[in-house]
Backbone:
């Protein structure tokens, strides 16, 4: 969707190169960063816009556990400190606030890769 694209764009600008909407097989991409966009939760509605929240989950997949943790921590720090104001709009959506959760171990997947994850909590405005 449109807001996970902005998070992906920010990651690319931070040299976090590979990102996907779903977890690819280890044969296709051994160490991806996967973005999963949650649904929009409306908080308020006005005549020409609505305001709400959305979560984009970021999963960092690496073959070495320590690298997964280090890269997830670096990604989260980059997103948290990224200068959003100039690039906060995409179509009818605009990011007006952002927070992140601390990266944490999520799982070891079926191919033995280690997955660390964090959430990007967006406050957004949608033009109506």
Residues:
């Amino acid at each position: 969707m449109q807001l996970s694209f902005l998070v992906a764009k920010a990651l690319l600008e931070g040299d976090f190169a590979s990102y996907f909407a779903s977890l690819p097989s280890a044969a296709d991409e051994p160490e991806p960063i996967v973005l999963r966009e949650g649904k929009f939760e409306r908080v308020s509605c006005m005549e020409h816009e609505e305001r709400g929240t959305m979560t984009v989950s970021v999963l960092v997949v690496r073959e070495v556990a320590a690298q997964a943790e280090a890269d997830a921590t670096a990604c989260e720090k980059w997103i948290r400190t990224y200068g959003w104001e100039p690039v906060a709009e995409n179509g009818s959506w605009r990011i007006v606030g952002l927070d992140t959760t601390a990266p944490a171990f999520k799982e070891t997947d079926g191919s033995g890769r280690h997955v660390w994850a964090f959430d990007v909590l967006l406050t957004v405005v949608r033009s109506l």
Observations:
- The longest strand covers residues 49-62.
